[in-house]
Amino acid sequence: MGNTTDKVKILTAFEGIANSRALATYQNHGGYEALKKALTMAPGDLIEIVKNSGIRGRGGAGFPAGLKWSFVPKAEGQKFLVCNNDEGEPGTFKDRYICELSPHMLIEGMAIAAYAIGAQKAYIYTRCEFYEEIAWLETAIKEAYSAGFLGKNIFGTAFSLEMDHYSGSGAYICGEETGLLSSLEGKKGQPKLKPPFPAVSGYLGKPTVVNNTETLASVPWIINNGADAYRAIGTEKAAGTKLFCISGPVQRPGVYELPLGYSFEKLLYEDAGGMLPGHTLKACIPGGASAPVLLPDELKGLTLDYESIAAKGSMLGSGAVMIIDTNTSMVRLMEIIANFFHHESCGQCTPCREGTGWIANIMHEIVSGHAKEEDVDRLAVIAKNMGGKTICALSDAAAMPTMAIVQKFGDELKAYIRKGKAS
Amino acid sequence: MTQQQATETLTFSLNNNEVTVPKGWTVMQAAAREGIKIPHFCWHPGLSIAGVCRFCMVKVEGRPKLEIACNLIATPGMQVTTETEEVKAAHKWALEFHLINHPLDCPICDQAGECSLQDYYMSVGKYKSEMTLKKVLKPKALDVGGDLVLDTERCILCSRCVRFEKEVTKTGALGIFDRGDRAIISIYDDKKISHNYTTNLVDICPVGAFTSKDFRFRKRVWFLKDIDTTCPGCSTGCQVKLYSKPEERRYYRIKPRFSETNGHWMCDEGRHLYAHMNPEKRQRTAFTPKQDNERGSKEQRVRADIRDALAFLKLKMAKYAPSDIALLVSSQLTNEEYKKTFAYFVTFLGVKKVFAWRDSAENIEAFDGLLNRGDKNPNTKGHAASLEAVGLPPVVSKSGFADAMASGAKFFIAIAPENTQGFVSSFDDQLKQLSAAGDVALFTSQAEHAKNPAFDLVVPLKCFGEKSGTFLNAQNMESKLAEKPFFPLNDQVKDLVEITALLQEN
Questions:
Q1: How close B40 comes to chain A (CA, Å)?
Q2: pTM of this prediction?
Q3: With the C-alpha atoms ordered B118, B124, B130, B136, is the resulting torsion angle positive or negative?
């Protein structure tokens, strides 16, 4: 399966449609039919469909969504579904696009997911900077309640679901699923020690599934069209479509819904219209700030799916494709990345708390002309020892781009130190 | 069935040795039992698992990444190694990360000498630091209440203190504020910590972030010797270590040691029960009435050798019928002392007026739910049992002192408690009444008790740090004072076992 890399509009189906956020518009285009259908099926069968569809988590880690759902204990009891709408990975602006186009697609997907895992309560957790998106989501939730798509006995079945919206205070770490749950519980946004995993002990210690907005919004289409139809899109190991956010000095930056396995060069040169005049491609960060940078040589022939990008030593991540041109100083870029992770480390695990600060400090020394060339190699040593050692992946997220930049642009950094300015 | 489940065990491999542990145990617990040292900061056997210091990395065969031993539940057949090159490198770097922003002010830090950072640097560190930059500066020398001074710069954010306040005292008085390398431990809105267990934070702090106001800057720890003994502060009988610089005959602090009685903790009240043993507080010699003094009044007394004082006591007792003598004894002696004391005074001499010298307003049922009890005597049960053993009613009542005063006795042999810190009633009032009661032989370790010149026959006693023996606590558990106690203040102070032996000698 997975043979077409032709474009299909699933998440962006409402592009160009007037009043796309309104419930009436959504229903006119078959909205909530998938939920109606799902409620006639056994929850276990729904999980099987999602498993068979091959959809993987769109938040960054790419964990198979159906498998995640299946980890929830089948026994009766309080369970929760949480939508991770805390879109914070630098370069990523896809989840907010779903909120802008069709929040009901997300709500419908969540209702189906909640039914499948046996949750009675669902939360959408949105980053607080999304003022408009929060208003749109809250309106949509209200509409869904009044139409009976949320609340008691949905479609006259025994299934009832309460849904609420919650917004954090802007911490990047609250986009990590257990950090998000801590925040949702009213605690400081810090990831929780695993095991236990959220599927067993999540929000308030109850079984909880946390899925990304994009993942959940894909669910109605999968239910309407079947697992095979979804699997037919993309590659064998990476099914379906993905939203890619291309940014940087390109002609048409923005969000593109593309089948996984789509050609990077097609995205850059056809969809995004290529580089702006006078700008030359220097590098690309393919999956958000935590993804290692790739050189033009490595980008040749690259396809946008989990395996192909991993084979080049980077990751698909959140689908944030950041184009870097030759005018960009890698010293400055590295400093910005280092500052970001230093600022956002929650501070509970020592290697991350101390390592992110150390890397940022060295970058400040480099930028301000106080560093020695050996400091560049030191960056890589520190980063190497931060990786794979912490509760969550923030430490790795800081370490990976650092190691890649030192490896691929170490000479530029050293030249900067020698000259005292960007080369 | 449930009991079977509770004792269900499993076997796994730890450093190539088969280890059998109860189901549900972590690798850290197993290693601790086996004496295998896995470096750690945040793990503490008396607290929940935080898993944040990332120091206790071990290798599990077949797993790509190292795992933290503290949160790694042992499974059958699991192969764990704690000393591979990869693990050693991880330990070294974990320590480096802990130390890059640590002020390294060991020369002025009270923790020096018993600091995990220092110890681990010697055992798993010994690297040349990669850190070349300025350190993060944070608030220092903060008074956060209780016995505590907090230095957030020394802090390694292991969160033991935060968990202690949440889980043990249930006050949740501490939190970690801000994030990343700006994170600091702090109290909320200047709400100072005010409970009876604050010094435990100093103990569990693996570094010098929390230091004790009481102990701060008083002695480098490597000059201190310690003995295992029992806290005499209440009828709980916490198992403790008592620290002294023996050459000075001076005591510096008390710390809990793990036991079933007290777990890992002890109260602040008990922590202070060393000061009364220091030379300036002590009754150093005996007093006897001034002899051959034409002008002298009855109150005048002279310092005397304890043997002379005891000889004088015997002469004096011979002048009274046993029924005119009252024996007033605190509940703070050891079982061995009671046995000898009652054998001599009650069985041998026939004194039957025996009373307990206790706090007249005590509430022995009081209990704070953790460790501290209203009975401020460590051996109430042993006292009662010893009375029964010599055929007296096993009653140690708070009215003992008043009963003694009303007993019609003419001569009082009064063995005072060494600790009156927790007394609710006025001990001074009792002393005043006693001084006016008639002839008194006062046995005490405290100069303060004997300062009234009306006490013209005084016998100096040892304190608990200088004694061996046993107590019977509120739960009928026997606890021991040190088998090898500290050298006493001088050769004049004695315990009741020695004193009764001297009385019987001549």
A1: 12
A2: 0.93
A3: negative
